[in-house]
Amino acid sequence: MISWVQAALLGLMSCCAASTIACLGTTVGNYTLNRPLIASVFVGLILGDVKGCIQIAIPMQIIYIALVTPGGTVAADLRAVSYIGIPLAWALAKSQGLDLGGSEASGLAGALGAMVGTVGTVQFYGTAMMNLVWQHIGWARLDKKDFSIVGKVEVIFPLISHLLISFIPVMLIVYYGADAVDQFKEALPMGSWYMKSLFTLGSLLPAVGIAILLKSVVNKATDLIFFLFGFTLAGSMHLTLIAATAVGAVFALINYQMTMIRNRAAAGPAGIDDDEEDI
């Protein structure tokens, strides 16, 4: 279902998205190309089904929507979620004839995305450990006044780390994992109780991502009123994502203007000194 060329391209995307050198820093790499919703566009272009891959990536994105890496601590590296989880979930859903935008496919994608996140963690720390080896070699060469090693340690050697720990594993897992889909289909029928349990669990995981996001942005209980209002408005008016964003932007602008008015009122009339006002 997934050819060697497609698997190699997915491995290359994973390698580039994890490399600060290839993607001009973590802003383009880790915080953009590594995110499932963005990565799904490239995965879809490679697999020839952009819409289907985006639909598969949505529940994965929601699960990890609040994921950050404070101090280099990684709970789940999204390179595996994006470039292993999306292709395998897409291949499995297609082989089962599931609607890629349906609840069963979403549950399957969520469960699979949560599982492969640990693979990305191994890749992250494995790359970091290998880069420490290059750093040790660099310091040893600098002690011998070999300053040419600096460029190699900063540019060339880390690419070798990503090639060995990101490119090759992703390519092999995606290619052979997609071939194992047929065996998975025979061993675990979609109508069995354990597969339905997996779908249910996977459908609940996006709620965990939303809860983590709310925990990081909600400062007091009354803040939840705005979220409840937004969900109610979007649900009752059947707004699309773009329309909901536009409505949210209008309310944000209104709130900003009201806040500025209150601040100016609290500051008092401009240019009037308190002493002169008393006189």
Topology:
Elements: H1 4-18, H2 29-33, H3 36-47, H4 50-63, H5 78-95, H6 103-143, H7 149-179, H8 181-187, H9 193-217, H10 224-237, H11 241-267, H12 274-278
Helix pairs in contact: 1-3, 1-5, 1-7, 3-4, 3-5, 4-5, 4-6, 4-9, 5-6, 5-7, 5-8, 6-7, 6-9
Task: Explain what the structure shows.
The protein has 279 residues and is mostly helical. The chain has 12 helices and no strands. The chain folds into 2 domains: 2-216, no CATH class; 219-266, no CATH class. Helices cover 77% and strands 0% of the residues.
Tell me, rounded to a whole number, the average pLDDT.
77
Helix content bin: over 70%
Order of helices and strands: HHHHHHHHHHHH
For the termini, the CA-CA separation is 86 Å
**Proportion of beta-strand residues:** under 5%
Short structural description:
By secondary structure, this protein is an all-alpha fold.
Q: Which short descriptors sum up this protein?
A:
single chain, about 280 residues, mainly alpha, 2 domains, 12 helices, about 75% helix, flat
